[in-house]
Design a protein that fits this description.
Blueprint lengths: L2 H9 L2 H13 L6 E2 L4 E6 L16 E4 L9 E2 L4 E3 L2 H4 L11 E4 L8 E4 L4 E2 L3 E6 L5 H9 L2 H6 L11 H5 L2 E2 L4 H19 L13 H43 L5 H6 L6 H17 L26 E4 H4 L2 E3 L11 E8 L7 E3 L5 E3 L1 H5 L11 E4 L8 E4 L4 E2 L3 E4 L7 H10 L1 H7 L10 H6 L1 E4 L2 H39 L1 H4 L9
Parallel strand pairs: 3-8, 4-7, 13-18, 14-17
Antiparallel strand pairs: 1-10, 2-9, 3-5, 6-7, 6-9, 11-20, 12-19, 13-15, 16-17, 16-19
Helix pairs in contact: 2-7, 2-8, 8-13, 8-16
Length: about 500
Amino acid sequence: MKATDSYRLINESPLKGIILYYSNVVLENIKPVKLKTVISEIQTGKTPPKANSKYYQSQDIDWFKPSDIGRSKYLEEAEEKFSEIALKEKKGTLYPKNTLLIIGIGGGVGRVSLLRNEGSSNQQITGLLFNDEIFPEWAYYYYLVREDYVKSQAKSMSFPILNQAKIKNLDFKYPSKNEQIEVCKFLDHCWECYLNNALPEVETFQIPQELKTYTIKQFSVIKIDEGIKGLIENQKGLITELKQAVLQEAIQGKLTVEWREQNPDVESASELLKRIKAEKAQLIKDKKIRKEKPFPPITEDEIPFELPEGWVWCRLGEIFQTTSGGTPNRSNSKYWNGSITWYKSGELNDGSLSVNSQEKITELGLKESSATLFPEGTLLIAMYGATAGKLAILRRDATTNQAVCGFYKNPLIESEYLFNYLMANRSKMISESWGMSQPNISQTYLKNFVFALPPLDEQKRIVEMVKDLMETVEHLKSEITQSEQLAQMLMQAVLKEAFESKKEEAHA
């Protein structure tokens, strides 16, 4: 785990509230002092010149960088080391064990860790050694939860810098040394309990009763919060499953069982398919479209479910004309910044697409490239890359890049039904089209994909029912989102005293 992630995990745990409560509330009557009054030694790190190989010939001294600070309470071994000769020639800094390291330059300003053994650091880090009044672990915990306060003291015109003078001027509060030691043992115990999803055994520690009470409250609230979050995440998962179930029921004709009973005399899908093929043959005869190689018969193994009476299986290429988009040469400025909408695959939105595209091309760019102007009503599908399987129905004439395939609108088939069918089968298409490192849904694959064709009137009814059901699902999703927001507000209210104690953190 990266140091930044580890530090964030600690600061998002109950530990932060417990430390702030103890230092701000329990120790309310103890006046803060300037850190310089309890420091016995302060040093800033160095980087031995990299150009001089003798400083790095032997791996003698652990040399820590900002990316190491915050990884854990104690740092034991650095990824990089340098030779002892660098210390002899005063090209490096040696800190004693139990030194508190604090980042003083850059984005990580304020992060802290302790040294388990002797070690060194680069110039972005300063090491603090404390006098006998201070238990080093208490200083670590105190500043662990005050990163924002420390950062506020490091403000500069251009780059955050916390030099030695600013570090010495930081506020610090501490109880007796014996209490520091006992509280730190308690905080260690709390952290282990948090990692192991257990409640702390507060009665085994000699700490103030109010801290014991607060800690149990804090952990109990966290457990409740985790339970609520788990429930909400489960509900979100059920919403996704519900959407998929609606689509599957739709394309298998299970939503329209009653409709078919009430409408027995509609034109069958087999008759509809004959009409579609006849119109396609006429277009070929009129030389409006090219004749394609005949599609192979659909085998038993390709049929995923049993069709209702009146439906028929066919291949998408038998009933739709498709083509892909294209990208005009980017080095030719005459092709770009025109008035023609040009969508990239990442702009497909799994719905109706009518917003302005991020980029536009010119008439010349369209004419002198492989780009295609798709008419309104064309269904688009992203064919490869991270967006493979994304869908959209055009609500305006538009062009696309070559990662998009367009299904031209067929007046004898509802585009929204095709959309629902492809959406229901998206996972299948992606899994069957995986290439070397990413999905690649080719046009050949799409044309040969088996399609459950219902009668036209039934297609229309399916589209209406899916729309109504999806609106209901979206309403449920909205209620879950509201529940999540209420849960977050509740948590913030319950834990308010942890983060808004009697004194502002910045003046702690």
